[in-house]
Amino acid sequence: MQVYSFNNVSLYVNGRSLKDFSEGDDVITAARREDAASDMVGAGGEMAVAISANRSGEVVFRLKQTSSDNGFMYSLVNAMQAGNFTAVTVQVKDARRKELALGTLGYVKKPADMVSGQGVNLREWTVVVKDLIMSADETSGILGAVGAALGF
Predict the structure, then answer these.
(1) Average pLDDT by stretches of 10, the chain with 152 residues
(2) CA 3/CA 135 separation, integer angstroms
(3) Could you tell me the pTM of the whole model?
(4) Around 123, how many Cα atoms within 13 Å sit in the side-chain half-sphere?
(5) What is the 3-state secondary structure (H, E, C) of the chain?
């Protein structure tokens, strides 16, 4: 039997473990910004494939408005806009299923919108990264080496 629990999923931004996510089945999403490859089929039926060098990606996550980690995220944006840019590293890890997404050389796209009302709302954050590496086995290949080098 296969088992999944969000309790095994961790999100780190610049080494800080973020907590207090909003509800839903998609509170954390890691995705590449474009296809890894494209193709063209000529008039004679021959196919040529172009492999993209673009490994950029986005990690989007939603915290409850009451999460103290929103302050941390706002501080990253405020520091960047004040001229103190520090590249952001983001890691999404499912310890049980051995899935890992690791993004390096990133930035926070914009401050989360502040929405208030009768109930608890969310703050949606997007971190854009130059390199987003995803794997279903964190110990293999380049992903393990990159994670080890960054101390993950």
Answers:
(1) 87 96 94 96 97 97 97 97 95 89 97 94 97 80 55 54
(2) 18
(3) 0.85
(4) 21
(5) CCCCCHHHEEEEECCEEECCECCCCCCEEEEECCCCEEEEECCCCCEEEEECCCCCEEEEEEEECCCCHHHHHHHHHHHHHCCCCCCEEEEEEECCCCEEEEEEEEEECCCCCCCCCCCCCEEEEEEEEEEEEEECCCCCHHHHHHHHHCCC
